[in-house]
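In practice, a research group might receive sequence data for several interacting partners and want a quick structural hypothesis before committing to experiments. The following worked case mirrors that situation: the sequences arrive first, and a predicted assembly follows.
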Amino acid sequence: MNIIGLYNYWIVVLLMMIGFYIVIAHENLIKKLIGLGIFQTSVFFFYISMGKITGGTAPILDEKWQLYSNPLPHVLILTAIVVGIATTAMGLSLVVRIQEAYGSIEESDIQAQDALDQLECSLEAYGIRYAQSLNDQDLNE
Amino acid sequence: MTAIAVLRMRDLFAVVMLSGIYSLLSASLFLDLDAVDVAFTEAAVGAGISTLLMLASLKLVGRFENKSRYRPGLALGIVLVTGALLVYGTLDMPHFGLAEAPVHLHVAPRYINDSMAEIGVPNIVTSILASYRGYDTLGETLVIFTAGIGVMSLLLVSRQTKEEYYKKVPADMQQQIILRVVVKILLPLILLFALYVQFHGDYGPGGGFQAGVIFAAGIILYTMLFGLGNSQRLFKRRTMELLTATGVLIYAGVGVACMFMGGNFLDYSVLRHDPVHGQHLGILLVELGVGITVAAVMIVIFFKFTWRTVKHRYK
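A structural hypothesis for the assembly, expressed as tokens:
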């Protein structure tokens, strides 16, 4: 069996893995979104390349042609692209709000700030004031 | 190759530009694979609007990625293992371009052989999109509408702030006379082309999704060169918000009208005496609804991002 005929799937896998790597290894949220975009296009390529028939033509009916590529994947992907940009815009606006709230879009910074907040809350629950507010009281006295 | 460069770079501006190029290359690849409608959409969305939105948010969050502290070893390991498993999985798949592959044996022959008689539209992609799988497309239009609402509520800028900054918003590109003149000439052509794509989608590649995006791209181009104030005078906030909903309403309304006339939801054959004419009318209206929603949502999203930028700059 000649396995060279499977090359389209391998390109898809390569692109998908690049996207996946960016999503899990990078900390910057914008970079993560771009990685998701690459992942997404790899799925598009998967569908479209499955729909292709050698010697076929674009699925617009005409008497000159007999063999057409499969139109169904085209429909699914065409709508997926537009939905993709709408959801990406949603993601970007979330990133903008995160930047405004935390002053950073690096994952580790955000987690560090969250951990600090949590620590403050639990200290307060035990009746222990956070160090800074203690100092404030000292100053007032 | 472009994807790998995207992976390596830390200057996000360059990354965004590269992802634009990546989209354009994808579009030409789609064209090569016979997916003309998809190529059309990818070129308009990926290389146009998505790049712009990324740039707008870069302006808000800063251009450079931090020097990374992560350990890439683990991530690389996971990626390699997953990739190897996926490649192993492909070994049983049908070869590229084979006409006997299972994908081509179920519904596709029905669409290709019978759609001319049943729908009467030469572009099979359009007839599947708007008629055979009309439910799907309604759902997707709704997703776009919802995403639009999400962005609107996340990036809310109060009217007070807007009025405060309204006078201060300069037309940044005031000096770019060449660009302004060229855009003035191009704009009507772009909008006309969008309308052509909208209403010619039955016969050639095109349809509501592509037309909406092209229309929005034209308006966005105008906004960039002539300032937010000028284009918001034409596209008022309320009008745009109404329009996003109108598109979805037209789509669903056509479905309900079909039910009243004795058919199933979104079964256009009953709209006229001749089923094929009914299908024509139904597809035209539905595509119009899609086009309106897509264009309005894209324009609104762009406006929201721009207002946010303006607010930050003058704080």
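Before designing any experiment, note the following. The CA atoms of residues 113 and 124 of chain B lie 10 Å apart. Chain B touches chain A through 97 residues (CB under 8 Å).
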